[in-house]
Inverse folding.
């Protein structure tokens, strides 16, 4: 899934009044380009490849600031690590591979419809939700 073309993470920061320092720009660039859901340690590893002078504490502070301003979404899956993704990818759900930790995004109109039906049946309207499905790869079948 891709971010909407209308705004980058940096544009959203400017709108929220978040100051764009050099290290923050690098961190946001790395996060915007991520196709996975990196934790702070992985973000720091990627950021350090671009600018070795950025400390891990700066990455932690920046991610907290971005989260507080609603610019990133923080996920804490069963492994307990906080992982991040830039907002603006549209609603999606997650498969989490319990063997590798890989997170796969997906969207299912059928699941969305069923959730809405069930909520109505119980007298509710869904305002927001997260669906995390923990999976294991199917065994390979012999050819």
């Amino acid at each position: 899934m891709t971010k909407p073309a209308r705004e980058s993470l940096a544009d959203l920061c400017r709108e929220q009044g978040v100051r764009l320092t050099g290290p923050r720009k690098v961190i946001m660039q790395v996060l915007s380009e991520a196709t996975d859901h990196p934790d702070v340690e992985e973000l720091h590893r990627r950021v350090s490849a671009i600018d070795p002078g950025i400390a891990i504490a700066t990455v932690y502070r920046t991610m907290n600031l971005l989260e507080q301003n609603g610019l990133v979404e923080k996920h804490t899956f069963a492994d307990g690590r906080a992982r991040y993704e830039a907002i603006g990818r549209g609603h999606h759900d997650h498969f989490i591979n319990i063997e590798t930790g890989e997170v796969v995004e997906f969207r299912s109109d059928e699941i969305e419809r069923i959730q809405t039906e069930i909520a109505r049946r119980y007298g509710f309207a869904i305002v927001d939700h997260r669906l995390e499905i923990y999976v294991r790869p199917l065994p390979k079948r012999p050819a």
Remarks:
- Residues 118 and 124 are 8 Å apart (CA to CA).
- The chain has two domains: 9-86, 93-135.
- Helices lie at 9-16, 22-33, 40-50, 56-68, 109-121.
